[in-house]
Design a protein that fits this description.
- This protein is mainly α.
- 63% of the residues lie in helices and 8% in strands.
- It contains eight helices and two strands; from the N terminus they run ααααββαααα.
- A two-stranded antiparallel ribbon has the order 1-2.
- The longest helix has 22 residues.
- It is globular.
Length: 154
């Protein structure tokens, strides 16, 4: 088992060197070789989705709201990709506790906003998915604190 696992990990590292999309996904906190390959394999192209809301729905991180004529008829789960949801949920668990913007956002939600830990994790998970979508769509690697650097330069 261990030999096969090492072989697959070696193959995933080769794929990451070969494809820039996988390298870009790996730049996100909590996303490693295996998860980056899963994201790129499932999504293929970000241009399939009209907006980040559609992407979050495909990842299973939001519920669909049925509204007609101003009346709310409830919420339902969308038909989503279970592997993609698993990647983002696991990625958040890996990112929390580290020195990264996702952990800072989690701490902010817990300490200042007073969110329950499971709700805060879900919000951070949606943030990670939106970052992943943005990285995929822009074609650039993730650079945390980029806005602060620009403000400091001005």
């Amino acid at each position: 088992y261990e030999e096969e696992k090492k072989g697959y990990e070696k193959e995933f590292r080769k794929l990451a060197r070969k494809y820039s999309e996988i390298r870009q996904q790996k730049s996100l906190p909590g996303i490693g070789d295996i998860h980056a390959v899963k994201i790129v394999a499932r999504v293929v192209t970000p241009w399939r989705f009209a907006s980040k809301g559609h992407y979050l729905s495909y990842a299973g991180l939001v519920k669909l709201v049925k509204v007609s004529g101003g009346r709310n008829y409830g919420r339902k789960n969308s038909r989503y990709c279970r592997q993609l949801k698993d990647v983002y949920k696991t990625g958040v668990i890996a990112a929390i506790g580290g020195n990264n913007p996702l952990n800072e956002y989690y701490d902010y939600l817990i300490n200042e906003k007073g969110c329950q830990p499971h709700i805060a994790r879900h919000k951070v998970c949606r943030r990670l998915a939106v970052l992943s979508y943005g990285v995929f769509k822009s074609g650039k690697t993730y650079q945390p604190y980029n806005k602060e650097r620009r403000r400091a330069d001005n």
